[in-house]
Specification:
It is built from four helices and five strands.
Length: about 170
């Protein structure tokens, strides 16, 4: 049974709107992140000799939290029997693929780093369905979905690209 069809293939290349993080890179948030990851690089701290302090390389990926007063996807869809609890795509601004009755597994990620975000900068992101392919697995067909998410400053300076692979079966 083939999983891939024209309805799903039309998503390839589809891009989300640009989303700006609700807050700029803030010293207090960088401190909390650095402490949580046990990375006390002095370049992250103000007054430690850096002209303009930087954030850890993965920090921008954690800047896109649900703002106060926004709807909670888990609560909204709790009664939906087709909802599997996955909210990653909705948080990236991409529409869900029409994959009823398929289970999504994490196929891994790749991260390309370009530059550090600096304290006070605004960070934006945009995602797109980079590819959707089908392979035959040991227990039947698998659909491989690759999503690229670019993070960059509000003046378009690239920070990083995260490539997530999802496996549907």
């Amino acid at each position: 049974m083939a999983l891939l069809n024209d309805e799903i293939l039309k998503f390839v290349g589809l891009q989300s709107p640009e989303v700006e993080a609700p807050h700029p890179v803030e010293a207090s948030e960088v401190r909390r992140y650095a402490q949580a990851t046990m990375d006390d690089d002095p370049h992250y701290m103000e007054g430690q000799g850096a002209d303009r302090p930087i954030a850890p390389l993965l920090f921008p990926t954690h800047m896109f939290r649900t703002p106060f007063g926004s709807p909670d996807v888990l609560t909204e869809r709790a009664g939906d029997p087709d909802f599997d609890g996955g909210v990653a795509l909705s948080s990236r601004g991409l529409p869900d693929l029409p994959t009823r009755n398929l289970v999504r597994l994490n196929g891994g990620m790749r991260v390309d780093f370009y530059d550090h975000a600096r304290h006070g900068e605004r960070v934006c992101m945009r995602s797109r369905y980079a590819s959707i392919t089908e392979k035959e697995g040991g227990k039947g067909p698998l659909m491989i979905v690759v999503i690229d998410t670019d993070y960059y400053t509000s003046d378009q300076r690239p920070l990083l690209r995260v490539q997530n692979t999802g496996i549907y079966r």
